[in-house]
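Table S2 (text version). Query chain:
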Amino acid sequence: MNVILAIESSCDDTSSAVIVDGILRSNVIASQKVHEEYGGVVPELASRAHQQNILPVVDTALKRAGVTKEQISAIAFTRGPGLLGSLLVGTSFAKGLALALNVPLIDVNHLQGHVLAHFVEPSAELIAQTPSLQGVEIKHPSFPFLCLLVSGGNSQIVLVESRKSKVEGDAHLPEMRIIGQTIDDAAGEAFDKCAKVLGLPYPGGPWIDKLAKLGDPSKYPFAKPNISGYDYSFSGLKTSFLYTLRDLLKEYGVDTIDELAERIPNLREDMCASLQATVVDILMRKLRKAASDLKINQVAVAGGVSANSALRQAFVDYGRRYRWTVFIPPFSFTTDNAAMICQAGYFKYLDHDFCAIDEVPFAKTQI
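Corresponding C-alpha cell output:
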C-alpha cells in the first residue's frame, strides 16, 4: 500500500491530504479569517496561524483517510512559490515528520500542483462527504494539453507534455513549459485590486463574480492590451478601470464611491460585470491562439481564478465552438489545497523522485 501525506502552506490556507494507491481519501483545509480586516494577507499573521493549524489539520487528514502515521510511505510538501514564512512552517513540519518516520520527502512546485490537480481521483467516501464533488464528472486530460493557470499571482499558458519528470544530469524537470504569461499583473490581482477600489471586501475575486451576475458586461468598455505572442498584461486594464471611476466621480461632482453609487444605479454591478467580461476575453483570446497554433484540442484551466463562473462558462462555450475537450476542476481543487500537492507528490513517488532533507523553500519560481 502506497500512502502519500501532503502538506500545503504556501499562503494563508493550511491544508493536508492523503492519497492511498492513487486514490484521494482526504483533503482538509483550515482557512485564516484574520486577514479580511487588513484587505490582504499579512505574512507574519499567516505564518503564525499555520503553526497553530498544521498539527490538527494533518491529524484530521490521516484520521479521515483511515490510515496511521506509521503507514505513511512518503511526505509531499509545497516547497514554493509562496510566502516564505508560511512555506517554512509546512517545510519544517514535513521534514521533522519524515525524519521521525524515516520516510522520503517529496518537494512539489505549487504551480505544477495546480496543473496536476486535473488528475486527482477522489474516493467514493470523500465525494459523499464533499458537496462540491457531488454530481461532478471527474475526467483527466490526455497529453499533450494546454492549461490556463490563473490565480492571484499568476496568469500563464502552460504546455503540458507529460506528467512524468525528465532527467537531465541529477535534476528532475517536469515536462511542462510556459508558453505565455503575464508581463506585469496577474488576472486575480486585477480582480482583487479593482474590487478594493470599489470598496468590496477581501478577497475581491468572489465578490466581483457575485456582483457581475447582476450587471451589464457591456456597460463600461475597458482598455484591452495589445501584447504579441501568448503573453498577457493586466496593468493597463487596472488603469482604465481606475480612470473610468475617476472620470465618473468628477462628472457627478462627488468624492467617494458610495456617493457615486447613490447617483448611478447598479454602478458596482455594472463595473464588476464589465471588468470580468474584459478579463475573461483577454484570457480566452490568447488561449485560443495558442491552441490553434499548436493544434491542441485538450484544454484545461487551473488556479484560484478558475472558480470564476464567467471563466468556467467561457471554457464551455469555447469548447463547443472550437471542438475542444475542456477540463474544469471541481471547486474543491481550484483554491490552494493539499489534494493537488498530494497528486503531484504521488506521481513523483512513482518516479522515485525524492528530495534531500536540506532543501529550502523558495518564494518565486517558474514552472
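Notes on Table S2: DSSP finds eleven helices and ten strands in the chain. The beta strands are 3-8, 14-20, 23-30, 74-80, 105-109, 145-150, 155-168, 171-181, 298-302, 325-327.
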